Amino acid sequence: MLRLSQHPDGGMHPLGAIASQLTASAHSKDGEFRPQIETLVARGWLDRAPEQTPIAAYDDPSEPLEVRAMAYLNMQCGHCHNPEGAADTSGLVLTGRHEKLVSTGVCKPPVAAGGGAGDLQYGIVPGDPDSSILHYRLASQRPDEMMPELGRSLVHAEGVALVREWITAMSGDCEKSSAQAAGE
User: Fold this and answer.
1) Span 79-95, mean pLDDT?
2) Every domain of the chain and the residues it spans
């Protein structure tokens, strides 16, 4: 079943993998393992490889923690949380192609989370996943709180653990960041 995401402007966008996520190896016709993109091109399912930098696999322990966490968020959240996505009003860019750390939610107050933020103040509180809206929403099973809101009915424990580990490893202080942003 094809799932669609509705953008506030009324446009519908299909939810699915994007080219940069197709980095795993798959069997080719000759029985060899090749990157998925190469296999799709070789089979004629794509006319050429896209010009996107591949992202790492979130479950590849040889990759740095931040790279794996951003790969996971890209896969789970990036289809909506990007400048043209259905959640563009949130200000979150969860594709791994953000220009500022605040765009990932670090010390960022919620803009469009509604009741889904609970009583939490920031998308990500460095070092404190239990005070972070991002972790809270990924771990929730309540329809008005959970993220992603489409296409899931279970919590992906491994992904939530990865994001928790990533937030825990962050350093920083949101109160100090807020005071500096306000010019105090």
Assistant:
1) 84
2) 19-54, 63-181
